[in-house]
Amino acid sequence: MANEGEPVTVIKNINNETEKGRMKVLCPNCRHLYNIDCAKLPLGRKVSFPCKACKGTIKLDLRSKPATDDLSVSPQTSKDNGAEKSLQSTPQSDGKQESQALKKGILQGLMGVLPPMPQVVMKAQEILSDPDSGLKELASVIATDPAISVRILKIANSAYYGLAGKVTSIGHASVLLGGKTLGEIVMMAGTSNLLGKTLKGYGVKSEDIWRHSLAVGIGSRLIANIKKPDLVNDAFMAGLIHDSGKIMLDDHVLKRRKAFEDLMMDRKKTLYEVEQQVLGLDHSEIGYEVCKCWGIPELLTSAVRYHHSPSMSQDNALAHILHMADFLAIQSDMGTGMDSTQCQVEDKTREFLDLQEGDYKKIKQKVVEYVEKITGQMDNS
Ligand SMILES: [Fe+2]
Ligand SMILES: [Fe+2]
Question: Which CATH number applies to 196-380: 3.40.50.11540, 3.40.50.300, 1.10.10.10, 1.10.3210.10?
Answer without folding.
Answer: 1.10.3210.10
